[in-house]
């Protein structure tokens, strides 16, 4: 059993749509060789969560579209550097997507927006509830989030969906830096167990 | 020091959610992960949680984005794979003699693993980590359920031995008895596809016994032929000489 197999099966048991996760790894190998059909398939499979998470962080639809395009081009350009031993293809792509969104939000041009965003933080819990549809996957993620303590849930959603650094999260929740690091980590450990990711 | 370590470790969650404030802090944790395997695997698991969070907030982008992205990809050059050559230790042990009469590939593979691990002698921690990572990648490949062992002589003499793991799209190559090259020339491996040829890395210099250490190549697809050419150092973007080996790969 190699790690990408076990990642894939763990992934299947996790909350999101993991049908064909293994195929996605294979598709990416073909993308690395310039196969445009494989790239179209990867696009169709992953553009939803890529765009979704970027928009969640950036809020602005046109900026989100721009960053989504950058991310998918990076997937095309960097496909040869994808290493299945380090995790599945979906995780590789989502890591790029989230990091790009964060880079954009922390860039100076976004600074003005940021003030505004800080002022209008809703309770993360409601935000999650808002985004949740009837899908089982979303339902599982929501249930797992609900299993966290309030501070754990708020720190994870503010950091991941809100794009705040852990220092900012500490400030927003009025908790010490040491405490916030621990809350995020403990919360992720609980989520990991709840979602069946080992 | 212990406190510092512990402090670093507790940043794994923030790191996985991209919640460190970039720059020094992020680099420090990345370095820490290089030394701390449990941190690295914890971050891998957390990133899967993050992926689930992303899927849970999936949204439909405007449909015209698809054409824009595909058109942009069509005019964007792709990066070649990072070439990963088994790092050469300074001191080498004698190689176990090649045993061609062992029939089972698995048995052969385990000998190869033993030899490769025997090779893992390096002087700095970084070198050692690199060798270990390479050894792990290679032994993973060799222990995958279906591997094919191929062996072929080159037109200049010498033999290339290949272990192909088609399901992983990877192979490991090593050679023995290739003629030594003049200064400024190198042996370069290629994956020759139906429409595209990509570099699969350089052969490391041979040991005094005429053998080269294993090279791991990724991204093997159906229809590929493994090629070996002599190229001017430090290697070429595309083959410039006639291959001395062209081994079709049964993928």
What does it look like?
Chain A is an all-alpha fold. Chain A has two domains: 1-110, Rna Polymerase Sigma Factor, Chain: A, CATH 1.10.1740; 121-198, Winged helix-like DNA-binding domain superfamily/Winged helix DNA-binding domain (Arc Repressor Mutant, subunit A, Orthogonal Bundle). Helices cover 75% and strands 0% of the residues of chain A. Chain A contains eleven helices and no strands. Chain A has helices at residues 3-13, 21-32, 36-58, 61-78, 89-106, 111-119, 124-131, 136-146, 150-160, 166-173, 177-195. In chain A, α2 (21-32) crosses α3, α3 (36-58) runs antiparallel to α4 and α10 crosses α11. The two termini of chain A are 15 Å apart. The model of chain A is unreliable at 1-20 and 118-134 (pLDDT under 50). Chain B has helices spanning 2-9, 12-16, 23-35, 37-55, 64-74, 105-118, 125-142; strands at 84-85, 148-153, 159-165, 170-176, 185-192, 197-202, 215-218, 225-232, 245-248. With 251 residues, chain B is an alpha+beta fold. Chain B starts with a helix and ends with a strand. The chains are: A mainly alpha (198), B alpha+beta (251). At the A-B interface, α1, α2, α3, α4 and α5 of A face α2, α4 and α5 of B.
Question: What's the short version?
Answer:
With 198 residues, chain A is mostly helical.
Main-sheet strand order of chain B equals: 1-7-4-3-2
Second-tier CATH architecture of the largest domain in chain A = Orthogonal Bundle
How much helix is in the residues of chain A?
A: over 70%
Structural class by sheet pairing and helices of chain B: alpha+beta
Q: What is the string of SSEs of chain B from the N terminus onward?
A: HHHHHEHHEEEEEEEE
Radius of gyration of chain A: 17 Å
Largest protein-protein interface: A-B, 88 and 59 residues
How would you state the average pLDDT of chain B, rounded? 79
Low-confidence stretches of chain A: 1-20, 118-134
User: What is the structural class of chain A?
Assistant: mainly alpha
Beginning-to-end CA distance, first to last residue of chain B = 50 Å
Total domain units of chain B: 2
- What does the largest sheet of chain A look like? none
Mean pLDDT of chain A comes to 80
In CATH, what is the homologous superfamily of the largest domain in chain A?
RNA polymerase sigma factor, region 2, helix turn helix motif
Distance between termini of chain A?
15 Å
Roughly how much helix do the residues of chain B carry, as a percent range?
Answer: 25-40%
Shape label of chain B = globular
């Amino acid at each position: 059993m190699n790690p990408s197999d076990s990642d894939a099966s763990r992934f299947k048991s996790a909350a999101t749509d993991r049908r064909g996760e293994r195929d996605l790894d294979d598709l990416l190998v073909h993308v690395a060789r310039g196969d445009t059909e494989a790239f179209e398939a990867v696009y169709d499979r992953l553009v939803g969560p890529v765009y979704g998470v970027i928009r969640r962080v950036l809020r602005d639809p046109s900026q989100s579209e721009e960053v989504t395009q950058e991310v998918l081009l990076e997937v095309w350009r960097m496909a040869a550097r994808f290493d299945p031993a380090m995790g599945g293809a979906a995780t590789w792509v989502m890591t790029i997507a989230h990091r790009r969104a964060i880079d954009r939000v922390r860039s100076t041009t976004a600074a003005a927006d940021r003030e505004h965003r800080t002022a209008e933080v809703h309770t993360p819990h409601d935000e999650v509830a808002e985004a949740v549809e009837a899908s089982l996957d979303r339902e599982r993620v929501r249930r797992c989030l609900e299993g966290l303590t309030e501070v754990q849930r708020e720190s994870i959603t503010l950091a991941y969906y809100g794009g705040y650094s852990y220092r900012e999260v500490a400030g927003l929740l009025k908790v010490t830096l040491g405490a916030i690091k621990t809350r995020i980590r403990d919360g992720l450990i609980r989520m990991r167990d709840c979602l069946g990711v080992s | 020091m212990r406190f510092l370590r512990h402090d670093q470790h507790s940043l794994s969650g923030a790191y996985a959610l991209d919640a460190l404030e970039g720059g020094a802090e992020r680099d420090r944790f990345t370095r820490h992960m290089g030394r701390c395997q449990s941190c690295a695997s914890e971050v891998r698991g957390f990133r899967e949680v993050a992926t689930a969070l992303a899927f849970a907030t999936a949204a439909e982008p405007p449909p015209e984005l698809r054409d824009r992205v595909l058109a942009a990809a069509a005019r964007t050059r792709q990066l070649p794979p990072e070439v990963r050559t088994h790092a050469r230790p300074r001191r080498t042990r004698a190689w176990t003699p090649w045993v061609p009469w062992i029939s089972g590939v698995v048995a052969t593979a385990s000998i190869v693993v033993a030899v490769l691990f025997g090779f893992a002698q390096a002087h700095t921690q970084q070198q050692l980590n690199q060798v270990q990572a390479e050894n792990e990648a290679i032994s993973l490949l060799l222990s995958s359920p279906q591997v094919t062992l191929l062996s072929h002589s080159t037109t200049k003499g010498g033999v290339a031995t290949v272990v192909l793991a088609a399901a992983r799209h990877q192979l490991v190559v090593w050679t023995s008895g290739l003629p030594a090259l003049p200064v400024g020339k190198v042996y370069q491996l290629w994956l020759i596809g139906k429409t595209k040829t990509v570099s699969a890395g350089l052969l490391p210099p041979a040991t005094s016994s005429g053998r080269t250490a294993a090279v791991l190549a990724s991204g093997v697809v159906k229809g590929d032929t493994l090629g070996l050419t002599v190229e001017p150092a430090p290697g070429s973007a595309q083959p410039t000489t006639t291959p001395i080996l062209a081994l079709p790969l049964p993928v």
